[in-house]
Design goal:
This protein has 222 residues and is of the alpha/beta class. The chain has helices at 12-21, 26-43, 57-66, 69-72, 90-97, 112-124, 136-142, 158-165, 183-190, and strands spanning 78-82, 104-108, 129-132, 149-153, 174-179, 194-202, 210-219. It has one domain: Rossmann fold. Helix content is 39%, strand content 20%. Strands 3-2-1-4-5-7-6 form a 7-stranded mixed β-sheet, with helices on both faces. Helix 1 (12-21) runs parallel beside helix 3 (57-66), helix 2 runs antiparallel to helix 5 and helix 8 crosses helix 9 (183-190). The termini are far apart. It binds S-adenosylmethionine. S-adenosylmethionine binds next to helix 7.
């Protein structure tokens, strides 16, 4: 194992700002505190997020993930998060949905060390999580899980991402895809290969960010 590195400190005001932006119950806040502690502990020996984002990790990563909750709605039970990395947004959502009866968040992450971290954190916090340490393409091909909601953040440009998402979308399912300022160009490129029914929701955490809410997706035939 690599020796532990010194990490930049978290700005305490940033936690308060994040929870003001995306309020959660005391129980969820306590779970998030424990998750952040575990994340920082593991970040000292491996890269789970860009070190430069640590001081503002509550707004930059936690609130950015929590803002999906209103879009997920009260009825959703099964969520699949593609390319979960250090747990954004999937593990954060699991912290928030831990008390929802029947909720399960599936985290798909092919890097074995990251998947091991996700499993350790889920076990430590007793979260309703299943970790799938494999490639999204393989997981999707098996169609072992058909979720109500599929999420992805910082994974791939939309033309590729929609191919990942497609096997998981049913008629009543939705995909919530966190995107940055290039979203319009990505949508226009993706629409050459896909018929997309989607809405764009402004991000609460980044002025140029958008959440692409996909509720219909069909491959174009040439
Ligand atoms: C840039 S990181 C983003 C992580 C996290 N979603 C976030 O927002 O912080 C992308 C993650 O997706 C994983 N990944 C990329 N392609 C994948 C694939 N085809 N199957 C499974 N995981 C993949 C990578 O290992 C990496 O952890």
């Amino acid at each position: 194992m690599k020796p532990a590195r010194a990490l930049p400190a978290i700005d305490p005001a940033d936690r308060a700002a994040a929870l003001a932006l995306t309020p959660v119950s005391c129980e969820t806040a306590a779970r998030l505190d424990r998750f952040v502690a575990l994340l920082l502990e593991r970040q000292a020996v491996m890269n789970l997020m860009a070190a430069s984002t640590i001081p503002t990790l509550w707004t930059r990563h936690v609130a950015d993930s929590l803002q999906l909750l209103p879009l997920i709605g009260d009825e959703a039970r099964t969520i699949v998060d593609l390319g979960s990395g250090g747990g954004f947004p999937g593990l954060v959502l699991a912290c928030a949905l831990a008390d929802r009866p029947g909720a399960v968040v599936h985290l798909v992450e092919s890097t074995r060390k990251k998947a091991a971290f996700l499993q350790d954190a889920a076990t430590a916090l007793a979260l309703p999580v299943r970790v799938h340490s494999e490639r999204i393409e393989d997981f999707g091909r098996r169609r072992a899980v058909i979720p109500d909601i599929v999420t992805a953040r910082a994974l791939a440009p939309l033309p590729v991402l929609l191919g990942y998402v497609y096997p998981f979308l049913t008629k009543r399912g939705r995909a919530l895809l966190a995107k940055g300022q290039d979203v319009e160009a990505e949508l226009s490129e993706a629409s050459k290969s896909w018929k997309i029914k989607a809405d764009l929701v402004p991000s609460k955490t980044s002025p140029e960010g958008r959440i692409v809410v996909v509720h219909g997706l069909e491959a174009r035939t040439r």
